[in-house]
Amino acid sequence: MEPQTSDKDITTFWIKVYFNLEDGYIRAAVKRAYRDFNRTLESLPKKEGDRKILRDIWIEVFERKLKEVLSSTFPSQNEFDVWHQSTCFLIRTANENYPLSQGQAQKWINMTLKYLFAMGETNVPGIKNNYPYFHIPLDRIIIGKLYNFGLGNFDGKPWSKINDYDSYYNYQKDIRRLYKDRIPMDVEFELFNSSYNLSVD
Length: 201
What we know:
Blueprint: H1 7-18, H2 25-37, H3 48-71, H4 77-92, H5 102-119, H6 140-147, H7 165-178, H8 184-193
């Protein structure tokens, strides 16, 4: 007897295992992506209640901007880049006493969009519309991979310490030039997946 479980059922299983869908797909992706960079946050309040206040402010600002990506199709890469820069700025400055670095903001935004895309158009309507314009999430793995293809590495500075938009944006443009005939995020999925050489032996 052949298995009857569909690819959709299997995908739904993995999404539910990996994400807390209690508040919906968007909030689940935002919170999961927050966990990808929050270990780099320094000098946060010791009390969880105080940290939650900070998180809620960041999340409120971010989710408001996310709706713009899901509800419209940007006419060009430049228009998306303007959205991206303004979103980085708003997140970085949302908590006056706890500013985020550019590296932290890009990781949160770019990983959230990656997660939402991986969840699929059925679960996140509109996520495919601007996928060709998405920025690659920069972290140690990806920067290391791209360094082997001739791209810089921010002078060895950790991704979380990148602190100006211009150097970050120039790096994204370098990626586009290097892979001029491909969608950058398609490349990122391949580079990330190739980082883990799994064997059944």
